[in-house]
Automatic annotation (TrEMBL), chains A, B:
Alphabetical GO biological process terms: L-leucine biosynthetic process
Main location: cytoplasm
Gene: leuB
Any one Gene Ontology cellular component term annotated for this protein: cytosol
Binding of substrate, residues: 100, 110, 139, 227
PANTHER family: 3-ISOPROPYLMALATE DEHYDROGENASE (PTHR42979)
Single GO molecular function: magnesium ion binding
Site location (Important for catalysis): 146, 195
Subcellular location: Cytoplasm
UniProt cross-references to Gene3D superfamilies, sorted A to Z: Isopropylmalate Dehydrogenase
EC assignment: 1.1.1.85
Chain residues that bind Mg(2+): 227, 251, 255
Cofactor(s) listed: Mn(2+); Mg(2+)
Name of the protein in question: 3-isopropylmalate dehydrogenase
Length: 360, 360
């Protein structure tokens, strides 16, 4: 099979971790007889440095011409980097928001998994983490407060800022369908999170989700208020299978959930549209403080590449092989420094990539 | 001194816990030579049952005529209670939002404290909770998404819902001042939480907070993105002193923080306006499942009454006495069932109230 992949190395540790993910993908291609055609685009700070803006039209076109995008991370230190002297809509993060919108990537899948071998890193007490957990946050990614109208005005000398949270039923329906579809293949439970006791958009969210649920009699639907969900993630994360929620709540809850696993360096994500196209990136950030030191953990990016093989290319066997390789190196005791613990063998970013590629 | 207090027993366990808090207040009055004049008003479901609406004009007037309001909790089971068949703006919670707005209670103070005696209930690993933590969430309470314009319309047969997040600089400034004022009396650190990489309202928030910070050179200000804050609360809650944030973020983060303590039945809150007036209520809900069973934990309400003594009446000595009584009963091993653990003595709601009153 011919795989057309656009890479966004990005900023900070991005180029290093994308490099290791490519190493693993190349090994997969070799073993399973595929051919990968890579293109590279600039985004975020890397694009600002060259083009003055965080994402160019051409970059978007290049991404569109591919089957999938593999991204590292973007952004720098917000207090010291010159990128953050620019107006907000020209900063590195604006590139990420722009590509999500341009490619219509409305469905953001963020698994939060407690790996048995890394259970010690979980910040929760052993009684709570003992049985592990494995949830998937399905976050709406192209609507809500992120993309509603916003303005800052001065009225009688008083500054006033407005953001708008808008959802129409079609935007809610398509993400709900994605959520139920994936729950059907998992433990068959959807927790839809909203603030229906306050927001109109949440009340519409709730009723559309209930309409969609009717087509999935085998999936259990429960509604949870966002404040309660923030509590339940800490109290009993094992209760969740698929969490379905809007953009801003999903931003907050998915980060909370990833920290609850204790090993954010292991967490992949996928952002999908209505076709097989997807953008795949680690859940963690660009970690500018450790960039270029060859100590970053490439596993989240490698696992994002595995999600790409599964969702965009339907290469389940290959995806399984990558995930198995990750489990294998963990079992063998290899750790990058972010997940290092006593008795394990510390390896660099490139060594981890080599170990993973060898095990494919 | 003459204390005019309006009580809102409310729904669920509300009447029981307010009863015990009054018991403690009465003992304080007796010991320290004060006179308390109570009035009662209905709010939430209790008001719907009598008046058909969750809050009447007269109730608001009664509250306004008092020095402070002591509230239990409002709301019922959202799936079984007839209150939730009403349109959203007539449900129990609408009464709470209405009184916050009517009394201009823009500053919501929610302490999240790990009590040494209850450290075992903390869901975090001992390495993280060992040194305890004691933070205060200062949540803006009368602006943002909660009170912006909202509407649901149908356009070409497509339902579309809109909520609006608005802040002007005055709303931000007054809550920031409250935050810095209280930080000055604590560990002198303010963490202002926003989503300035996306929202205009957050960018205005950040600049006004920075302006206010100039008047408090002794207080350290740091900015944190809301998604990162949701992570940090789990990773290292001890890093926080005062968290200053807008309404919706404050709703989510304060609930997360309260669960991180593991003993939400212990957490008080105060909602203040620009005068000494305040509404005091426990951070927890109405727990309809255990209502009327005399097993609720009245401590959060008792500690809310202590906050009232301190903030509205400037009775620091009396507030100290109430807080000392709480520490004392915990030390003596008395526990309501929600915080019960091996080797402790289980007591009912009324017994806990008696024990606390005796120790004043
Ligand atoms: C960088 C930022 C704009 C982005 C978001 O808020 O969506 C990030 O936090 C994420 O979750 O991917
Ligand atoms: C009941 C609800 C409207 C309320 C809120 O969201 O403010 C509650 O969650 C709270 O935090 O006091």
């Amino acid at each position: 099979m011919e795989l057309k992949i656009t890479c966004i190395p990005g900023d900070g540790i991005g180029p290093e971790i994308v490099g290791e993910a490519r190493k693993v993908l190349d090994k997969v291609a070799k073993c399973y007889g595929h051919r990968i055609q890579y293109t590279n685009i600039l985004m975020g700070g890397a694009s600002i440095d060259v083009h003055g803006i965080p994402l160019t039209e051409e970059a978007v076109e290049t991404a569109k011409a591919a089957d999938a995008v593999l991204m590292g991370s973007i952004g720098g230190d917000t207090t010291t980097s010159p990128w953050y002297k620019l107006p907000p809509n020209q900063r590195p993060e604006a590139g990420l928001l722009a590509i999500r919108k341009a490619l219509n990537l409305f469905a953001n899948l963020r698994p939060a998994i407690l790996y048995e071998e890394l259970a010690k890193a979980c910040p929760l007490r052993e009684e709570i983490s003992a049985h592990g957990f494995d949830m998937l946050i399905m976050r709406e990614l192209t609507g809500g407060l992120y993309f509603g109208e916003r303005k800052t005005i001065e009225e009688n000398g008083i500054r006033k800022a407005t953001d708008t949270l808008v959802y129409d039923e079609n935007e809610i329906r398509r993400i709900a369908i994605k959520g139920f579809d994936i729950a059907k293949k998992r433990r068959k439970k959807v927790t839809s999170v909203d603030k229906a006791n306050v927001l109109d958009s949440s009340r519409l969210w709730r009723s559309v989700v209930e309409e969609v649920a009717k087509d999935y009699p085998e999936v259990t639907l429960e509604h949870m208020l966002v404040d309660n969900c923030a509590m339940q993630l800490v109290k009993d994360p094992a209760q969740f299978d698929v969490i379905l929620t809007e953009n801003m709540f999903g931003d907050i809850l998915s980060d909370e959930a990833s920290m609850v696993t204790g090993s954010i360096g292991m967490l992949a994500s996928a952002s999908l549209n209505d076709t097989k196209f997807g953008l795949y990136e680690p859940s963690h950030g660009s970690a500018p403080d450790i960039a270029g030191k060859n100590i970053a953990n490439p596993i989240a990016t490698v696992l994002s590449a595995a999600m790409m093989l599964r969702f965009t290319f339907d290469l389940d066997k290959e995806a399984d092989a990558v995930e198995a390789a990750v489990k294998q190196v963990l079992k063998e005791g290899y750790r990058t420094s972010d997940i290092m613990s006593e008795g394990c063998k510390k390896v660099s970013c490139t060594q981890m990539g080599d170990l993973l590629a060898e095990r494919i």
